[in-house]
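STRUCTURE:
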């Protein structure tokens, strides 16, 4: 047998695998690296996060990505150059982290790389009947494998689209494996650049699980802060927003987006929720001349209200539900306070209660997807709801 296939076969047969999960989201704050020890596969999977770090991006990294990020027109040479360059940068960050953790690369079985989304384009967003769903993540898997010496599974979203999905959110797959409960109805809420949730009704089969994007988490607040408060990347601890006043007219205009009327599950990104979207809402509501802190307070309320409305839609009085939050937004006290007030009937906590560090959750989910790609079966996801194709995802790159 070819040695690469033998290696994969041996990996699949191991009782447990050590997998590095990577996530670089829409916030462009840094690369999340989670070194995971995963036992088993499918619904028997269990994860121990051995190490976790977010390696902050340099200004150079951010500005190179921002030059093409969510833009309809870009310099094609720049885009092409970014594909291997992002992978090389990520490889260096992984190599440094492994060095600091004193873990040799030879003791890591796989890397699971999400890559950097630069454009996300579901059909319901572009609305051109001539084209289907599409999404583009940069950071090539072959380059990662060669520069780290570790077999890399990457580019997870394409299979989801090929099998009929919108390519995102993929959170349901890992949330289902890790957090599905026979007795507790759960919602896993991740507040990253875009907020998304996974609905996990309790039960033996957990049938009907799905995940969906909700709307902006931090992306609009971050973009606005970067534009109006040079030097700041985000409104740390909502210190600015807390001094502002929510403007109801602007809030109503923000909540009128067509995206909020689409059926579930659905997905979106900064291609829709960006500063041009905010400017249109300000114009429509006659709120062009607000103090910057009032706009920030309103954007904070916008993210909170979008989340509250969707969660309220899913709650049923006879189903007491626990909401486990994760992502950078949980560190925003104003946002969390509004969620508590707007969702008084459910218990609100974080994934730390389920033994997964909230900042590490998305990276862990991709490690689980890579584990399924190598050691899982396609029947694992049969109980997910429509809109969540029952497929394994990811492409395998060898280091030599
Ligand atoms: N102390 C804090 N106060 C307010 N906001 C915070 C704080 N810490 C983090 N954040 C927010 O969290 C963001 C980072 O979140 P996260 O790392 O989950 O994003 P992401 O992985 O890019 O998102 P996604 O992939 O889900 O789009 C920051 O840009 C900021 O808006
Ligand atoms: C296209 C893309 O990268 N989407 C991200 C983004 O960030 C949050 C939200 O939008 C979600 O749909 C998705 O990431 C998570 C990890 C997911 O696929 O579940």
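SEQUENCE:
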């Amino acid at each position: 047998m070819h040695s690469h296939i033998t290696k994969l076969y041996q990996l699949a047969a191991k009782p447990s695998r050590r997998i590095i999960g990577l996530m670089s989201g829409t916030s462009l704050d840094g690369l999340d690296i989670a070194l995971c020890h995963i036992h088993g596969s499918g619904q028997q999977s269990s994860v121990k996060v051995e190490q976790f770090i977010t390696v902050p991006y340099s200004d150079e990294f951010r500005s190179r990505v921002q030059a093409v990020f969510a833009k309809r027109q870009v310099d094609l040479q720049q885009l092409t150059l970014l594909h291997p360059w992002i992978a090389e940068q990520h490889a260096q960050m992984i190599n440094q982290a492994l060095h600091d953790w004193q873990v040799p690369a030879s003791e890591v079985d796989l890397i699971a790389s999400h890559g950097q989304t630069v454009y996300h384009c579901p059909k319901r967003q572009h609305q051109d009947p001539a084209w289907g769903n599409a999404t583009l993540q940069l950071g090539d898997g072959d380059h990662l494998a060669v520069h780290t010496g570790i077999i890399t599974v990457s580019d997870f979203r394409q299979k989801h689209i090929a099998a009929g999905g919108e390519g995102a959110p993929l959170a349901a797959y890992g949330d289902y494996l890790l957090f599905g409960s026979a007795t507790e109805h759960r919602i896993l809420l991740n507040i990253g650049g875009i907020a998304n949730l996974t609905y996990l009704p309790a039960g033996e089969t957990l049938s009907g699980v799905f995940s969906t994007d909700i709307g902006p988490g931090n992306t609009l607040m971050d973009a606005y802060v970067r534009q109006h408060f040079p030097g700041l990347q985000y409104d740390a601890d909502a210190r600015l927003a807390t001094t502002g006043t929510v403007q109801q007219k602007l809030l109503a205009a923000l909540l009128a987006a067509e995206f909020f009327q689409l059926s579930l599950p659905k997905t979106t990104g900064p291609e829709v929720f960006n500063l041009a979207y905010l400017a249109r809402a300000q114009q429509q509501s006659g709120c062009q001349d607000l103090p910057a802190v009032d706009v920030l307070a309103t954007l904070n309320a916008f993210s909170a209200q979008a989340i509250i409305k969707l969660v309220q839609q899913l709650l049923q009085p006879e189903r007491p539900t626990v909401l486990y939050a994760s992502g950078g937004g949980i560190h925003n006290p104003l946002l969390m306070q509004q969620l508590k007030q707007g969702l008084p009937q459910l218990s609100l906590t974080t994934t730390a209660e389920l033994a997964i560090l909230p900042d590490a959750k998305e990276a862990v989910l991709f490690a689980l997807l890579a584990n399924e790609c190598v050691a899982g079966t396609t029947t694992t996801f049969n109980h997910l709801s429509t809109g969540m194709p029952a497929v394994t995802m990811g492409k395998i790159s060898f280091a030599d």
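REMARK: The pocket of AH0 (ligand 2) is lined by residues 25-26, 117, 120, 135, 168-171, 192-194, 196, 213, 267, 269, 362 (CB under 6 Å).
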